[in-house]
Design brief:
Blueprint lengths: L10 E8 L13 E4 H7 L4 E2 L2 E7 L3 H7 L8 E7 L8 E4 L6 H8 L1
Length: 109
Amino acid sequence: MRNPDNFTDMIRINIVNFTKGNSLFYYGMKPSFWSLKAYENNGQGWFHGGFNVEYDISPYHVEINKLNPHKPKSFYSCSFDFKFDYDNDEVFVAYTIPYTYTQLQSHIR
């Protein structure tokens, strides 16, 4: 996501259609972010952030189940507030900090 010049307001982000009923977000986990400006200015990589993180049943699950009444499912959404630290920044959001297969292998051994 990108922010325009002088945008300092808090924004609310809603990620919908998760199918897990339980999540680590219930226990304090926060989404992960990577900021282009933070990386250029001080070499900062992925970091956990966001405020007021919530994980709950999606308000859209009723409409989705109307489309397929023979296989009803519960859908969940993760919602959180975010504030840009830099003007004209480009920020990426992830469920958790991404890693490569090689990194995974190094942790297993």
